[in-house]
Request: fold
Amino acid sequence: MSEPTWALIAGGGTAGHLLPGLSVARALVAEGHDPASIHFVGAERGPEQELVPEAGFTVEVLPGRGIQRRLSAANVAAVIDLFKALYRGIGIVRRRRPAVVVVLGGYASFACGVGAVLCRVPLVLLEQNKKAGAVNRRLRRFATASAVSFADTDLPRATVTGNPLRPEIRAMAEHPDPAGARAALGLPADRTVIGVFAGSLGSRRINDAVQGLVVRWADRSDLAVRHVVGRNGFSDGSTSMPDLPAHGIAYQLVDYEDRMHLLLDASDVAVTRSGGSVFELMAAGLPAVLVPLPIATRDHQMANARAVAGLGGAVVVPDAELDTDRLEAELAALLGDRAHLADLAAAMRAGATVDAAERAAAVVEGAARG
Reply:
């Protein structure tokens, strides 16, 4: 018997793929859809099993892992898992017969995308980056519609919606409270704050450049840095607390930031990567030094970074060129004076799409209606 499903949202494996999908699901609920009619299919190794039920939706997970670009026993197992996932994903679509399938990217989404094609269910692609990911590119010829974050993304029948924001990020963007955020994070109220973050695992190159600069600027009593080094930086011992004077730069070193909305709100400038989270920077009106991940698929982080830098509130530094000297030069130019910083913040905010979740939900509704 068919289970009552209106929308099947497929994909994940990473928070970057999953969280926009959850935001769209919440927007659909706000439009009147029963949460029980929205079902997620995700990756066995991703955060879906925890985050989706917490948000009030049901989820099934598929087996799978990344395929390496070399012959190995692990690749044989990965291919077997891929076929298992494909069989199960097609079965889920056939069993549930949703009105629409939404693909978020990531290997877990491919099976349900194929299922949508075989079962003649409208297919919507949700793309977080300027250059479409592998799954969305493979499914694009079959897509009923695409909701894209950037103009000129290489997907058909596209509506530019922006990348849907997490609820707490949107709330911060609509009601900023930098003083309250600084108090919550233990940051000084009267200093220029630099926020540093590079995903849950962190970046050795960014960490080294930032710590070198913190030591160089040790005597600056006008600055504060909250440095999220990532779990790798802590676990491998590559990043540790430097010896700093008591009344100089205020430096916080943490392994993981679970209150990113507060860090975005508290900061005056950021040093970070340039995945789909660049839309959070724009929503916060936060100028940035963007250091694209060099191994990102199709170099999509560089494409994202250049698009954001075109607004006038961010600079792009290739990963291979980042060191303490380059970071010092770029931050000095960004920080300038308060009036200059305000202009940069306004330029970033001009690119924000705070209502991206509602825009993407409208694309999904339109596809389902035909």
In short: The chain has 15 helices and 13 strands. The chain has a mean pLDDT of 92. The longest strand covers residues 38-43.
